[in-house]
Amino acid sequence: MGVSLSIKDVPEALAERLRRRAARNHRSLQGELMAIIEHAASEDSEMRARSQRFPPEPKVREGKSIEEIAAEHRRRFPAPITTGPLAVDIIRADRDSR
Fold first, then answer.
1. Residue pLDDT, tens place only, 5-58
2. What is the pLDDT of residues 75-94, one digit of tens each?
3. 74-89 as b/e, with b when 16 or more CB fall inside 10 Å?
4. pTM passes above 0.70
5. Are the C-beta atoms of 29 and 19 separated by less than 8 Å?
6. 29-53 and 12-24 helices, crossing angle to 10°
7. What is the 3-state secondary structure (H, E, C) of the chain?
8. Cα dist. 43→4, 7, 37, 89 in Å?
9. Residue 32: which of 58, 53, 11, 14 has the closest Cα?
């Protein structure tokens, strides 16, 4: 026999989003909630198993610090770049092209 779980005081907006998600997946609200919980539980156990099989490698710091890179960049390019398009214009043109 399964265990009954209860979540109290669910905001109506969240409940409505869950109902719509359940409808999109052709499930009842109960079935959708069960699928979400099963997915979350399997992700957790998969991540735990992965971390036990492949422990993180110790981080070795190599190379320059960000301060050293910034100082080198300032030496190589003392004046700000004033030619060329602005990033905001490139992004706007990309958005407008869609």
1. 899 999 999 999 999 999 999 999 999 999 999 888 887 767 776 666 666 666
2. 988 887 778 888 888 999 99
3. eeeeeeeeeeeeeeee
4. no
5. yes
6. 90
7. CCCCCCCCCCCHHHHHHHHHHHHHCCCCHHHHHHHHHHHHHHHHHHHHHHHHHCCCCCCCCCCCCHHHHHHHHHHHCCCCCCCCCCHHHHHHHHHHCC
8. 22, 21, 10, 41
9. 14
Write out the two tokens for 16: 């409505």
The backbone torsions φ and ψ at residue 65, rounded to the nearest 5 degrees and listed phi first, read -80, 165
The structure tokens listed for 54 are 């492949």
Q: How many whole angstroms separate alpha carbon 2 and alpha carbon 17?
A: 26
